[in-house]
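subagent[fold] <- orchestrator: predict structure for attached chain, return tokens only, no commentary.
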Amino acid sequence: MRRSISICILTFFSPILVFAAEVQSGLIGEFSDGSTTVREIVPTANFTLSENESISTQIDPMFSATWTGLLRLNRGGEYSIYGASDLRIDGERIRMGDPIALSAGDHRVVIKTTRTELNARQQLRWKSSFFSEEPIPSAAFGHQTPPDDQLNAQLRITHGRFLFAEYGCGNCHESGAWNLSVRRGPDLSDIGARANSNWVA
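subagent[fold] -> orchestrator:
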């Protein structure tokens, strides 16, 4: 009877333990232009920006950024990482291209950068003794930080901005100084004089 009770208790609690240890995909990015700071969950720390583009629509083009999360490795070995000027793994600063021995599993990662050029690019790459240099896939990044009120609020704002553009809200509503994109619908003025039955699907 005692054994049966023990098995039932373990079975009951095991999903909770798995849920608590669940790792979500992506990194937590924090971006600031000096006056506004936003936090978003992003697939990687990569970006390619032209002169007037920003890493986030909510901040100015010149920014500083910090990505935090996990580097997830299926296989242990010696790795070399390129493309990040300020990279820390498990609290240790890693020089670009220097080999580092990493075990299989999750490793805490922090990546920082400050934009200094109008045309800016950051592309993280890696290589090991068992594969050639290649871009670090988004599947290699994750985060386990419990969601907080600030991040949840920021995610709701980001989703709201997406919906504003997706549903063409700017066609009828002003967006003010929020730097929101507007998807313009087709011009239907005098449509009766410009369309015929062959045009209408």
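orchestrator: received. Logging for downstream: The helical segments are 2-20, 149-166, 191-194. The longest strand covers residues 64-73.
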